[in-house]
Every structure is written in C-alpha cells, then in structure tokens.
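Sample pair:
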Amino acid sequence: MSRLRTPIHGFLMFVLLAGIAQTQEITFRDPLEIRGEDPATNLRFRAGWDGESAQWFQLESDGVVIRVRLGTGPGRKWFVIESRGAVPSGPVRLAPSDTATLRRLMASLRPMESSLEGGFVRVVNLLASWPAELPVAGPVMPPPVDISRPVVRLRSEQAIGRAQYPRTTGLARPFHVNLTDWRLLRYALAVAVALLVIAFVPDLVRQGRSEKLENLVQGAQTSLTAALATNDPARRRELLEDTRRFANEALRIDPEAVTAEQLLQEASADLSAMDAIFDLGPMTTVTTLGRQITGEVSVEAVVVAGGSAYLLDVKGGRIISVPLAAAGPPAVVYQEGVAYGGMPAKEPLYVAWDATGAGRLLVLDAERKLFALRPASLPEPLALRRTNTWASIGGIAAYDGNLYVLDPKGNQVHRYLPAASGFDSEPSAVLSAGELGSAQGLAVDGDIYVYFKDGSVRRFRGGEDVGFGLGGIDRLPERAVDLALLSAADEVYIADSGNKRVVVAGTDGTFRRQLVSNAFTDLRAIAVDAAGGQLYVVVGDALLTAALVR
C-alpha cells in the first residue's frame, strides 16, 4: 500500500481496511484507490483518498451502492453517506452491535439481497469498536483510549495533570461508521443538492456576472450619451455621476473592462470641467488691520467703491477706510460715540453703497439711525421713517436710489424711496410671501438676492421667489457669510466659509465656477470691483485681493 500524505489520512484508511481485509481480497489500483471483492457474498468495495482531509469507501452488490465519505477539519470530523438502489422506509437508529435489528432492516430493503446483507453485516461488525454515532458537524470526538495498548505519558508545561497519547505503532483500531442510521440519508440529500450547486452555480454565477457587466457598461454609455445631450447643468452632473457609478461597478466585476475604463475617464473629465475650480494662488495683502489699527478688530463686511475699501469693524464699533488707488494708511471714518451733524453715532450694524450721483456709503447703526459717508467728508445723518415697524434687521442694500431693509423676523424686505433729506418716505413691502427667518443679508440689482445661514440663496423678482438652484455645482454652499453682485457680468459671488471658497453663479442661479485659495482660512466678507477687475476678500483681520477670474 502506498504511504498516505498525512497521519490522519493514513489512520482513517488503515482503520477501514484493517476490518475489511479479514474477509475480502484486496487489490491496489493506484496510490490513491483500493478495490476489493468478496466472492462469497458478491460484495464489492472500493476505498481511497480524494483530498487533503477526506477519505471514502464504497460497498456495492446487485445494483445497490452505499458510499461513505469521511473527512476532518480544524477541530471537527464529518462524514456523508450516499446510496442508490435502497430506499429506507423511515429513519432508524441502530448500534452496530445490534445485528438482529440490522438483519431485519436489511431484509426490508429491496432490491438488496442476503448476499449484500451478510457482507454488510461483517463489515459493520468489524468496525463496531468505533463509537456508534459520529457527529455530522461538531467538536472532534476522539476514540476512547485503548488501555490494552501501551501509551506514552507526556508532561505538559501548560497542563496541571498528565496527558495520555496512544502509540501510533502496532495494530490500528477498527474505524466504525454507523451506516444503518438512515437519518443520515437526509444529510446525503443535502450534500447532493450542494454538489449540484457546486456543479452548476459557478457557471450561472459567471453567466450572471457577464450579464451584469454588460448591463452596467450599457447603463454607463446611456447615461453619458444623455449627459452630453442635455442643456440642464444639474441634470448633466447627475447623469455624469451615474456614468461614473456604473463604470466603477463594472470595473469591480472586471478590472480589465476597457470600455468601462474609457467611460469612467470621459465622465470624470467632464465632471472635472463642470467643477470649474480655479485656484487664485497667493493673494496680495492690501492691509492687515491688527498691525495698523489700535484695539481689537473683527471685520464683518467690506464695500469697495470710490477708490477705497470700507471695512465694518463690529468689535471696535467703527468703519475703517483703506485707500486702494494711492498708498496710505487705514483711517477710521466712523466711530461709535462720536456725534455727526449733532446726531450721536451708535454701533454700526450694516453698510451699503449708494451709487446715486458721486456715490456714498450708507451706515445703519444700532438705534436704526442712518448716516451717509462721502469720500473725504464726515458722516452726516439721513432721515429714515417708520423704523419702529421693522420686526428685525438683517441687512441693508441700495439700488437705483432706493434703500432696502431686510427684516428676517417680519419675513419681509422694506423699500424706501429717496427724499430730499434722505429716505423720509413711507416704506413699502416688496415680497408677497416667503420665510426669511434665518436670512443673513441681501443684495439688489432689480432682483433681490437673500442669502441664508445654511448657505442657500433665494432670488425674488416682482415679490415672488423665482429660484436660485446653483444647478451644476458639485456641492452646495455650506455657510454663506457674504454676497456681492457683479452686474456688468450678470454674476453673483457667494463667500462660502464652510467650504473655504467663493462660488460664482449667474444671476439666474446657474453655477459657473468656484474660486479657491490657501488663504481662505477664515473667510468673512467679499467685494468685487468691476472697474478695477479685482476681487477683495476679508480673511481674519486682513484685506486680500486677486484679479477676477472669468
């Protein structure tokens, strides 16, 4: 007999053959299979080894075949019984030594004849010394220690007592499997189903994978074609994202799918173009107020007009002018507590540029008094009627000579027409409806743009909300802190401090591009100078500038 590959394999095979060899003549077909026959009972058997952890033997007579597969695994033993030509009438539990019951059982099975019965009983009896029940799945059940055989006593450093190990030399113990327990045929049926699954499922899986791959590639191609055909930026981005998702799933199935890779690259390139990210690079520092102005500084708004930048410092209760056209230090042009035109100034809350005539800066203070500040002049008070009707103040804007006041709690924008001494006119409600509770500020160019704490922007025309969806943008603004209009280019600039960027959109709300810079660490306010072609941003206490990107 050829030497088997592992001690367990050899042990199981020798136990099986040691019992059968007492009554059958054994021949060897090859190193992994043994065949034998008992002429007296017309009983034929085969035994072999078919893997790293499984052995088998088969009994056959007059068309009746019983095949047993035995196996071991980490911490477990298992076996499977298959049969042909014998159908049990019901489950039977039988100890191998119960030969009378065994004979009655064998006599009830047709077409199994007595010749098979005799050989079968001899084999079972020869294997009867092994435990009668071998679990289908469970912890290893070691055979009882044969006290008639010498043992080797070993001391374990990790054990308290001694362990006994049977010697591996000498006669092998007979191996016994209870073949008459017909409950095991149910397990055989389960194994047969599993074998069918193993035989057919791989092809079905491969077929399913191929079909899925084809569908994913087709879906990616369809989405890409539709994306290139649509004029809706938001819809186009959605279709390109679908294309990329389909292509990625296809590549997970087959990393060598050339068409999927091409579709993925094309969709990614189109999405990158739609992202329209422009890096402003190093920005020019106009001034750092903390180094040039005494006291604490906290800038929340900036207006660029008339060759100067006006910065609203809420911490210092003042407005600081920074010359842009000519070199010069920053200067305080409005200070809380100072009287202008006989009117004591209070903390400045909001500023806006009124382009009427030579232009002037409008300042609204904490007592709802309005001041006008012209270049090279002191602030002067302006009349403003019925300010007590406002439920709150969220910002001011000026357009075409009119003053607009944002009232978030009142869900309204109040408009004042100009008068000789300021805005001494009855306010009118501009919006017909709308929830403005979290509004942060506004800008006006005929349409009214209101930005909110969550980063969203709403556009009102004729009092109605006409939408501002930022269609086509990769991600919506997270936190809008300021908004500026570039009317000459029909563009809206949104300072998105949450994403450290400036979002540029058309006045209809269509996304155009986004401006980024490593300097946008603490983005607070934004302004655009159409005449000079410059973008101004306030970062912390510094005023920075860069050329406009169009």
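Confidence is low (pLDDT under 50) at residues 1-31, 75-79, 86-99, 104-167.
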